[in-house]
Amino acid sequence: METLTNGGILGGTLYVVGTPIGNLSDITLRALEVLKSVDFIIAEDTRRTLKLLSHFEISKPIDSFNERNSTRKMDKISEFLKMGKNVAQVSDAGMPVISDPGANLIERCYKEGIRVEVVPGPSALTSAVALSGFGGNRFYFIGFMPKDKNRRRLLRKLEKDELIERIVFFESPERLRKTLDDILSILGDHRIFIARELTKVHEELFIGTVSQALGHFDDVRGELTIVLDLKNSEDNNGEKDADY
């Protein structure tokens, strides 16, 4: 059995910092304090993070840390932390590591006795579950829905799992209709909640059935978070869609 430990007095701290998913006013006071105080910031996409830092007039050294380069940059960041420097890890939006890169660095810090602290922030996952009104018990988070055959294979597996009451996932605008078609043919015409551009100026919330969503969404743009209610379908609730 592997034992991971959180570091102590020596060395710096890796702060895992949640950032807004859209509306910049959603950043926490603690997140701002940490971003202002650390020696270095690592970001999934430096361009997006620089916009956030500029908005709050924060100037810090920043470097990219993403799925493509995380392995080769790990040693440098680890040594930096061991020197007593503090590092903030952020993603493009929301909580780092949740369907985003960065878990390998956190595991590395535990193994090497480097302290890790979380600075909680907004999450599209929990926000969508709360907004759906479907309830938050027994939901299965997929992250980004797989493509094509892998998507259909996953949906068939989920169809057989009676313990899962809701599915939550992210989807790209380009694949939304294909995913809805597969859900309808494999899982049925269940209630669905689709949040587009959460907390942003053009936020759109849709509640209805899968077939109604197919009739509603055509030329889709923006980021999508979806909650599918497997406990209810058109056959047993007959509800109409609501478009806000």
CATH topology of the largest domain: Methyltransferase, Cobalt-precorrin-4 Transmethylase, Domain 2
Order of helices and strands: EHEHEHEHEHEHEHEEHEHE
Per CATH, the superfamily of the largest domain is Tetrapyrrole methylase, C-terminal domain
The total count of helices amounts to: 9
Low-confidence stretches: 236-244
**Total beta strand runs:** 11
Which CATH architecture of the largest domain?
2-Layer Sandwich
Tell me the helix content: 25-40%
Give the end-to-end Cα distance, rounded to a whole number of Å: 50 Å
- Alpha-carbon Rg, integer: 20 Å
- Largest sheet, strands/sense/barrel: 6 strands, mixed
Give the CATH class of the largest domain: Alpha Beta
User: Roughly what fraction of the amino acids lie in strands?
Assistant: 15-25%
Could you list some keywords that capture this structure?
Cobalt-precorrin-4 Transmethylase, domain 1, six-stranded mixed sheet, 11 strands, alpha/beta, Methyltransferase, Cobalt-precorrin-4 Transmethylase, Domain 2, 9 helices, 2 domains, five-stranded parallel sheet, disordered C terminus, 244 residues, single chain, elongated
In short:
The protein has 244 residues and is of the alpha/beta class. 34% of the residues lie in helices and 24% in strands.
